[in-house]
Amino acid sequence: MLKLVRPVLAGVAYLAAFGAAAHGPTPQKVVETVEIAAPIDRVWQAVADFGGIAVWNPALKASEGNGNQPGAKRVLTFANGEKLEEDLDTYDPATHEYDYRMSRANTAALPASSYSVVFRLIPKDQGTQVEWKSRLYRGDTGNEPPPNLTDEAAVEAMRHFFQAGLNNLKARLEKAN
């Protein structure tokens, strides 16, 4: 009996090791925040238009959308001319939050195959904390992605996009004080 068990266990161990090496991508997370010395209603006024993100995010050349109700769509045009489409899932002015997701991947615009995002404002002391977080998957979901479509590339691109927008939003709103 022992002679039969050893080969079976060895085979199971081999398959487990092979499966672990070939599991594909895992979800990545990006969370960026900034504190803005402005009241939450003023910050919300600046970011409330789902389609108007290009007004305050310099990583974009343009943006256009068709409203702020769940199901609305927007198209982002990046500085390199590439476009990315997103769908609005929830929109709540009372809690100063909206959630959206990529509707069609374009890895030339952003090296991710899919993502979902939560954008929210939180009252903080005399100002507002803006939190932008995403769960995303790399641009190439195969086991050996090229360097420009790895987990790291996707995280870095999303982080840069979030930081550019948050830093500019802070500068614009605090300058107006």
UniProtKB/TrEMBL annotation:
It comes from the Bacteria. Residues 1-22 form the signal peptide. Keywords: Signal. Pfam families: Polyketide_cyc2. This is MxaD protein. It comes from Methylomagnum ishizawai. The lineage of its organism: Bacteria, Pseudomonadati, Pseudomonadota, Gammaproteobacteria, Methylococcales.
